[in-house]
């Protein structure tokens, strides 16, 4: 029964839980020991030995049957390249020589050549092969043909190129391509790595950083020598956000696009000097005009930067936001606050690729919250017959890779923000949802006074937003609700939240979600926008509820005549 690998992933310990080998049913190693004595031997789990996975029908968890040689943050099983290494031939060596790269550098960094089918041309091509090693294991291969087409080995793990080079240094350099690694190696800078797939305008998915984050934990200095174009600068910003501004330094490549161009233009000595002269990221909380001159120039040219929207036409007309801020969302119980926040973060994900983490004690159990997000992504209700189908797999994979659920026995503000910081670094989240704030207490609060407590609580949220450039949602229930003369509960404001004025003063934005059960509509009202260019105070958007997708749909009928809504008459 025992095998050495599953899908190319080498097994370290077979049957780690000592389960009944070969059986398709049995106990769950995660929950059986905690069940009542009479149920501890119940066969509540299914085993799939070929895939190396088990599934429990009692606790709904999935567990690995085996451990693997590389234990890391990633739970995926990757393919290992089956490549016979072939050294670069004379023609390839000559081409690299024209780019300032010697034969010795090619040998040092295991650069080879060979035939490979390239999807861009639809045929087999002569390719240069950049071999990605981690330890003595070949993890991935990057292929480059004569037309500058690239591809990575299908199904292999994404890691930094030349990652082994940084293990014995407290300093490292990150560049944007394998050619730049070769250029810096040629210049005598050996502790240099490259991202595996270059830079794009949307750099939210840095899965290779998650896979290699342990290599950077001990670094006192991380030098970013990235391309000077817009995608390269976006990547720089994201790496600074993920690795921390306190350790990051920026290389000035002058008028050159990248390190290889710099090598050709100025030579190896000057390239090495440019790396050594890298300057630290500007001090936190201290700016000079030169630090912000790019933003200043952009403002002079284009005016205020457009805020981020969610893709609902009527709401986008009255509200938008920046990152590095937080939004307070209030409303009476069962008004749809959590659902609207879910729809907002799904909208940000659709439009900008943002990932979100939820600290939502009231959204338990987690699988039901995941189901709500699936419906919004799917735009339909998944049915039993859809399970493991093409659409099911696509949607579940998307939700799995873009939304994270912080599950704790006991929530605290400190633990949630600490986990949020970890998710920024490892997964690149751009949104954090705290729902509701009263279930996530600041256990380190220095004062029992409600106003001081609220002020300190929101100050910690604001500091987190700014440090990690994250958008935080705080769902806050009102403490007092009053009925009007018509018998309906009046709309709360931010002043109805415990802590009153502090919420209005400190929040960047405030939203009210209020349901009218008679009219079967939901209104979202802008209670506050900090900057006038981002929205309109007091403006409203009206929605109907679409039950299959679990989504709010703009209610155009409610806006046709511009007259009073039912609760305003």
Short description:
The protein is of the alpha/beta class. Helices cover 28% and strands 21% of the residues.
Would you kindly provide a written description of the structure presented here, covering whatever features stand out?
- By secondary structure, the chain is an alpha/beta fold.
- The protein folds into 3 domains: 5-68, no CATH class; 90-280, Dna Topoisomerase Vi A Subunit, Chain: A, domain 2; 313-568, P-loop containing nucleotide triphosphate hydrolases (Rossmann fold, 3-Layer(aba) Sandwich).
- Helices cover 28% and strands 21% of the residues.
- It is built from 15 helices and 25 strands.
- The chain has helices at 90-98, 103-108, 178-186, 207-212, 230-243, 259-266, 268-276, 293-302, 313-316, 337-352, 366-378, 390-402, 413-427, 450-468, 501-506; strands spanning 5-6, 9-13, 25-26, 45-48, 53-56, 62-64, 67-68, 111-118, 123-134, 137-145, 150-152, 171-175, 192-194, 221-224, 248-250, 279-280, 326-330, 356-359, 403-405, 431-434, 471-476, 509-516, 521-529, 540-546, 551-554.
- The strands form 5 sheets. A 9-stranded mixed sheet has the order 19-18-20-21-17-22-23-24-25, sandwiched between helices. It has a 5-stranded mixed sheet with strand order 13-12-14-15-16, with helices on both faces. It has a 4-stranded antiparallel sheet with strand order 3-4-5-6, with no helix packed on it.
- Strand 9 (123-134) and strand 10 form a beta hairpin.
- Helix 10 packs across helix 11.
- The longest helix is centred in the C-terminal third of the chain and has 19 residues, at 450-468.
- It is globular.
- The relative contact order is 0.08.
């Amino acid at each position: 029964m025992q095998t050495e690998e599953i899908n190319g992933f080498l097994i370290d310990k077979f049957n780690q839980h000592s389960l009944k080998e070969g059986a398709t049913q049995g106990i769950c190693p995660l929950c059986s020991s905690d069940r009542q004595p009479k149920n501890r031997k119940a066969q509540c789990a299914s085993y799939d030995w070929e895939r190396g996975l088990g599934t429990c029908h009692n606790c709904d968890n999935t567990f690995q049957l085996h451990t693997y040689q590389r234990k890391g943050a990633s739970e995926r099983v990757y393919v290992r390249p089956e490549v016979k290494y072939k050294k670069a031939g004379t023609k390839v060596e000559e081409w690299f020589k024209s780019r300032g790269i010697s034969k010795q550098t090619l040998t040092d960094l295991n650069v080879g050549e060979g035939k490979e089918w390239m999807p861009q041309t639809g045929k087999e091509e002569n390719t240069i092969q950049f071999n990605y090693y981690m330890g003595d294991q070949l993890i991935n291969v990057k292929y480059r043909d004569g037309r500058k087409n690239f591809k990575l080995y299908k199904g292999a793990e994404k890691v930094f190129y030349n990652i082994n080079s940084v293990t014995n240094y407290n300093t490292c350099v990150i560049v944007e391509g394998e050619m730049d690694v070769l250029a810096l190696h040629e210049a005598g800078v050996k502790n240099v790595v490259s991202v595996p797939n270059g830079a794009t305008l949307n750099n939210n998915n840095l899965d290779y950083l998650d896979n290699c984050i342990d290599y950077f934990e001990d670094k006192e200095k991380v030098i970013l020598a990235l391309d000077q174009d817009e995608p390269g600068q976006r990547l720089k910003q994201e790496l600074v956000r993920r690795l921390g501004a306190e350790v990051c330094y920026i290389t000035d490549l002058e008028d050159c696009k990248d390190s290889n161009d710099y090598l050709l233009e100025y030579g190896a000595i000057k390239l090495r000097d440019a790396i050594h002269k890298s300057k630290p990221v500007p001090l936190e909380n201290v700016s000079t005009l030169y630090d912000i001159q790019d933003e200043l120039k952009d403002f002079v040219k284009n005016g205020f930067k457009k805020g981020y929207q969610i893709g609902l036409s009527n709401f986008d007309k009255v509200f938008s936001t920046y990152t590095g801020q937080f939004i307070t969302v209030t409303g009476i119980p069962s008004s749809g606050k959590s659902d609207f926040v879910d729809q907002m973060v799904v909208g940000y994900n659709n439009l900008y690729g943002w990932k979100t983490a939820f600290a939502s004690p009231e959204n338990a159990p987690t699988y039901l919250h995941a189901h709500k997000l699936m419906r919004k992504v799917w735009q339909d209700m998944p049915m039993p017959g859809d399970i493991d189908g093409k659409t099911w797999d696509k949607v579940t994979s998307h939700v799995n890779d873009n939304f994270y659920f912080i599950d704790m026995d006991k929530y605290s503000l400190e633990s949630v923000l600490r986990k949020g910081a970890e998710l920024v670094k490892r997964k690149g989240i751009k949104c954090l949802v705290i729902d509701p704030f009263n279930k996530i207490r600041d256990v380190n609060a220095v004062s029992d006074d409600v106003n001081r407590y609220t002020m300190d609580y929101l100050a910690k949220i604001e500091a987190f937003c700014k440090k990690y450039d994250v958008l935080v949602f705080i769902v806050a229930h009102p403490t007092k609700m009053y009925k009007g003369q018509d018998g309906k509960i009046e709309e709360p404001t931010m002043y109805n939240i415990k802590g009153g004025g502090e919420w209005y003063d400190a929040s960047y934005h405030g939203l009210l979600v209020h349901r009218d059960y008679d009219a079967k509509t939901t209104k979202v009202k802008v209670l506050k926008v900090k900057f006038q260019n981002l929205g309109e105070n007091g403006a409203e958007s009206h929605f109907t509820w679409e039950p299959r997708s679990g989504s709010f749909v703009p209610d155009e009928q409610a806006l046709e005549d511009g007259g009073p809504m039912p609760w305003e008459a």
